[in-house]
Description:
Elements: H1 9-32, H2 43-50, H3 55-77, H4 87-102, H5 105-115, H6 120-140
Amino acid sequence: xxxTKLVDTSTYxxxxxxxxxxxxxxxxxxxxxxxxxRYFGADKLAExxxxxxxxxxxxxxxxxxxxxxxxxxxxxxxxxxxxxxFMRTMIIIIIVVYFLRSLMILSEIFKVIxxxxxxxxxxxxxxxxxxxxxxxxxxxxx
Length: 142
């Protein structure tokens, strides 16, 4: 038996939907408390906010909607909510975006080892990779 078949396909999509729900919640918190931008490595957004710009909060709200939509696609692919349009295409887009984000882990490992960056940045990239794999494994089983 193939190891990817040990778990029902819908489980992978539910996990992906939950991960996106977590990202949605975290970004909602950032929009409400923009002083946290620096903690999460968004120094330029923190500087813009400190100078009185509303752009960081609007960009964060846009990400809240994006992650929320991606969560809905995960739950929809799992059959937990009604089918959404362009299901397969959207799942592929989600996989690609998270996988590309996860590639930052290579430079982040270097920065943590040689430049004193915080280890949490590696965790963020690992989370992106894990989320891409959840959607990939779900798609593979569709």
